[in-house]
Task: inverse folding
């Protein structure tokens, strides 16, 4: 019997940069009995509007005419009424937008893939924070960029130093984009201050590059003053979203449900027209029935209600995790105090590895989390971990943190 | 007031190869009153199982436990029971497969994008028929390939001539894949004979390249003997799908409904594992609720019933179009006689352009179709057009063809 076909020689060069996601592999752990999981940025299904969704699916298929469009192919830019709703809602985020500034995507993950595809030639530089959202690194890496690190809170590099580093990497290579999660970032839970946002926009202006603003957790603020979106700040300066360098990524995955796979991009209509071509070539359109259902679930003030419920639901979970960390964590461990979102970021004592702690945590403490190194483009961050409080209840959070701290004593 | 931001300098090199789809633009014409459309490979919504879908959505959300998984994130490879059903169904297509050979995609369009991403380094050659499915050219072109033409029905090139042409194109460039739609092809409606399939597999064997088999219309055979799938022929020779060079693309878009955006790839599990990484980085997973609903709609023999209904529905439409063409079309025009699927391909008299005929057809005859040139990678095919009979009823087909022929007299 001959062996299975060896596919490796068939792959494109870019396949070298494609890695398995530790987060996605960890999702499988959620099914093990007895594990308390602080892994995965997963919303609590207790919040899913299941009854409303059921009604909306029934309505979308109620008449023959409805079903004929809900189950058919459709335009790549997305369902008109949903694009209108989002354009209108962007005003509450400080951005005056029209439906032509909006394209519907299969979650923000697809938006990241499309922007990598549109902006990155192999060898070009993407500026990211370190740590940053792992899924952004995965999406961009398919387009073979080089990464460089931005620190909007403590600028220590000149625009020229970024340009020069990019040019050294490959002939004709340039800095092509900056990516940031300004509010309650994945993985740190930290929020960029107003001045850090201005610093980031100034840097992007000096380099004349787009800024990709990922707002996945933006709506989930538990306390503290709202800080304007990067796109809102930029539009206030340049006068219109069509003139802005900021590409705003929104999603319903954290406030409604991720299972419908619906997010959006708000940007200059010139850019949106290009992204529509990419959507056509990539998967034609987002499921129309899901877009119609999402429109039902969020319109007439219902998104605001879902957001209010989610804030009230996640805040005590964050409080429980911060309280348990304060009560039980030995000295030498530091952690962030997020004002919203799903995540707390821990720096372990020097020499303690997040990856080896995870092995012990699963075996000895029945607790899961994500080792920090996964979120760094440069392989650093070995002695950090990400804890998510979104899924377990407060009593599990308290128990899980106590079990975890016992490994560090 | 300053102008809108110029985004052109920001784009990657690959953006040069991205073009708008004439087909997708033509979808907008469907909404004009009075137009009889032979454009778009769109299934007839009269066949959509709307009532069954409505029941299935309600069931997927019936209990709290069901809703908690149906509306949540999930694994990138797809919903287990659907992968099992497909693996089992592949046996009826002549391929013994296990669920590990299957990944669920957002329609076959996403499968094409993923395979371009995994296999094509810029400058590599993709072998395609001329004409071929426009969406495949759009998907592959994002990865900057060179194209070369295969003619499985009339081999006139040696494997060496393909290799040499590929090597001339760029340093290190190789022939990396062959793509074909063997049954009732989009756009010609033609089917590859058994011997043409063997010829294609021999060529691929000599070049040692993967063959991407797009079976979008495969189930819709109205008459004539079944011809084994490329993957079935190859597996019979090599012994197992894990040893096969054929990558089988299936979809429910033509037999159930395109609005759920569900297709699949059946291939060697080594390849599937790579594709799962690409799915993770591209959009995480296909909407779980849609996968559950699709599983309900096709299992327990229901897919076979839907296929039988679709065949009975489309056959008289094809008959009506062929009869009208025979009755009214002036000499000098030739067309294919498909045994299934959605399409008939017309060769216009020399000097008559499909694109300029379309303008006249819309204005003077209120008929739409797709000019043939869109389906050629090399810009040829100017004097051909594609007619689809899937959407209009038989009386509209007869009227539409009569109106069209009046322009050619």
Result:
């Amino acid at each position: 019997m001959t062996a299975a076909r060896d596919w490796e020689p068939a792959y494109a060069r870019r396949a070298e940069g494609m890695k398995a996601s530790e987060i996605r592999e960890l999702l499988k752990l959620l099914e093990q009995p007895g594990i308390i999981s602080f892994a995965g940025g997963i919303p609590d299904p207790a919040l899913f509007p299941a009854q409303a969704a059921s009604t909306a699916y029934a309505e979308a298929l109620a008449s023959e005419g409805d079903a004929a469009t809900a189950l058919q192919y459709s335009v790549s830019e997305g369902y008109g009424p949903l694009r209108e709703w989002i354009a209108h809602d962007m005003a509450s985020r400080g951005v005056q937008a029209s439906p032509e500034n909006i394209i519907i995507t299969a979650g923000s993950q697809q938006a990241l893939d499309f922007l990598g595809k549109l902006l990155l030639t192999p060898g070009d530089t993407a500026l990211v924070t370190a740590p940053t959202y792992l899924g952004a690194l995965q999406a961009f890496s398919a387009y073979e960029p080089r990464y460089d690190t931005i620190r909007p809170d403590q600028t220590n590099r000149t625009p020229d130093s970024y340009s020069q580093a990019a040019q050294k990497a490959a002939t004709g290579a340039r800095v092509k984009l900056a990516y940031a999660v300004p509010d309650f970032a994945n993985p740190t839970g930290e929020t960029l201050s107003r001045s850090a946002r201005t610093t980031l926009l100034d840097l992007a202006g000096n380099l004349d590059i787009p800024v990709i603003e990922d707002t996945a957790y933006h709506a989930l603020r538990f306390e503290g003053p709202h800080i304007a979106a990067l796109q809102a700040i930029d539009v206030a300066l340049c006068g219109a979203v069509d003139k802005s360098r900021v590409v705003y990524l929104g999603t319903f995955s954290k406030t409604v449900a991720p299972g419908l796979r619906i997010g959006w991009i708000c940007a200059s209509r010139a850019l949106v027209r290009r992204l529509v071509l990419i959507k056509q070539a990539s998967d034609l359109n987002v499921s129309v029935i899901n877009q119609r259902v999402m429109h039902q679930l969020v319109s007439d003030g219902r998104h605001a209600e879902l957001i209010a419920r989610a804030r009230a639901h996640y805040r005590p979970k964050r409080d429980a995790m911060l309280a348990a960390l304060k009560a039980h964590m030995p000295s030498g461990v530091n952690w962030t105090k997020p004002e919203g979102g799903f995540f707390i970021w821990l720096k372990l004592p020097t020499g303690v590895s997040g990856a080896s702690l995870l092995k012990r945590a699963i075996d000895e403490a029945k607790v899961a989390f994500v080792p920090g190194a996964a979120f760094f483009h440069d392989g650093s961050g070995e002695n950090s971990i990400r804890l998510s409080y979104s899924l377990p209840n407060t009593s599990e959070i308290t128990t899980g943190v106590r079990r975890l701290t016992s490994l560090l004593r």
Notes: The CA atoms of residues 58 and 69 of chain A lie 14 Å apart.
